[in-house]
Amino acid sequence: MGIALEEGRKGGIEGNPPVGSVIVRDGEVIGIGRNRVNSDTDPTAHAEVDAIRDACRKTGSTNLSGAVCYTSMEPCPMSCWAIEAAGCEGVVLGSRHAYFRGVGKRDYDHYRVESLMELAGRSLGTLTNIKTEECNYGAPRMDCERVTSTPLRQPLPGILSLFGLCIVLSTVLNIHAEAASTEPTVSIVAENAKIVTDVATSRVRTVEVHDVPSRGACTRLLVETSDQAAAIAVLFSGGKGATRISEQGRIGRGKNNFLIRSRTLFHNNSISTAVIDAPTDQPHDLRSGFRGSVKHAKDIGAVVVHLCQTFNLPVWLISTSRGTNSVANAATYHGVIGPDGIVLTASMLVSNKKGDQVLEFPLDKITGPTLIAHHEDDACHVTPPHKVPELVARLTNARPIKTLLYRNGLAQGNPCKARHYHGFNGLEETIVRDIANWIKAPSD
Ligand SMILES: [Zn+2]
Fold first, then answer.
1. Counting beta carbons within 10 angstroms of the beta carbon of residue 25, is it exposed (0 to 12), middle (13 to 18) or buried (19 or more)?
2. From the CA of 48, how far away is ligand 1's center (Å)?
3. For residue 281, what are the contacts with CB-CB under 8 A and spacing of at least 6?
4. Opening angle at CA 283, ends 282 and 287, nearest 5
5. What is the signed CA dihedral for 432, 433, 435, 441, rounded to 10 degrees?
6. Any residues with CB less than 8 A from the CB of 41 and at least 6 apart, and which?
């Protein structure tokens, strides 16, 4: 990335946007490029394209398979596709377009390399935030550390690529591809049931398992309906986000999670809950990019619509830790119907090697009620309390908006886990009551 930055500086001196790129294969630099749009009077002479041309010349081949493109700025759609077309296996980003929103640079809206790849039915391994400070050219946000994700490139067979094209077209035409798929299924697995968790016992009217189809996959919910419910809250746990809900409504993973163990308190505060599982085509782990994907946003959108239609209640998305990425994604993706409000607890505010962080999303798109809750002593390195004001500042259009800060409670075990301050251990009753009251009457 140092070479790419240096190359970008040269381009800047020549009167171009200061972006540089390097193609590396087997530890060897095989191509170097910089933006030459103005100096060459060539609108296609972006740094990545320039580096690919250099690499192809030097290797005498148009096939750069096994190579990785290091680029100081996230590639635009044209350059991104050039990287894909050349056969590169991955791209390492110095910075993201999202960081420059609202600071006078070209606005790429919700664009991310991953979203383009997904629309095209491709998967290009992506690492972000190498040398971010230098790559951000003085843009105000992000002191990200390093690296996210790396699903390896998985080209799909031609017929599926055609399906990818259909998705692109249906997105452009604003048609929901999932409209053609089957209806949601609902099974009531218990009535008048007692739910017992570590923190409280509740009595619910029904326990239901819902399977909600979207884009050919299916997302399962464990729905527990409270009497006289004022709203239904979809609960997004952290970590891998796979709760492994069985057909009988048993939760296989994450019972200890702050929101999952506290759901009985939501019932007792007249809020029905829906614990969400990972979709059938991504069943084990939502980290490493999926939480920020278009697929995930669409799945959550389908869940919101389904719950709204089924219960005719306000639908809220309540999230904790890595779950906040899922909610930030769904609430900012313009292709899906949004929830009535969102709650972000112990928000992910630092880039990390396993996935997204909330500040990477175009948070100014969120216009509905937004509640932020954080522990002042949260000691997890990716959810630092000192970045909460930045989160609030980025939510420029969220109304009403409120921040709740907590102290004390119990700190046990790993500081990023459920029984530390990060998981509001010992504060469950207070925070759930605060959240439930705010959901019922949101105000600044
Ligand atoms: Zn470009």
1. middle
2. 7
3. 216, 217
4. 65
5. 160
6. none
Q: Give the helix ranges, DSSP H, for 323-376.
A: 323-332
pTM for this model (two decimals): 0.62
Given a cut of 90, is residue 27 above it in pLDDT? no
pLDDT at 134: 61
CA of 125 to the centre of ligand 1 (A): 18
Does residue 417 register a pLDDT over 90? yes
Q: SS3 for 359?
A: helix
pLDDT of 288 above 90: no
Amino acid found at 92: V
Strand 20-25 with 185-196, pairing: unpaired
Return the sign of the alpha-carbon dihedral for residues 217, 222, 228, 232: negative
Cβ atoms of residues 250 and 190 within 8 Å? no
- Identify whether 48 is a catalytic site residue: yes
Scan for tokens 């952290």, then name that residue.
238
Tokens of 193: 């049931």
Q: How far apart are the first and last CA of the chain?
A: 43
Instruction: Quick: pLDDT tens for 121-146.
Output: 877 777 655 555 566 554 433 322 22
The secondary structure of 224-241 as a DSSP string is EEPTT-SEEEEEE-STT-
Of 153, 117, 122, 147, which is closest to residue 132 (Cα–Cα)?
147
The Å distance, Cα 75 to ligand 1 centre, comes to 5
Total length of the chain: 444
Compute the distance between CA of residue 177 and CA of residue 194 in angstroms, rounded to an integer. 39
Catalytic residue among 7, 48, 208, 428: 48
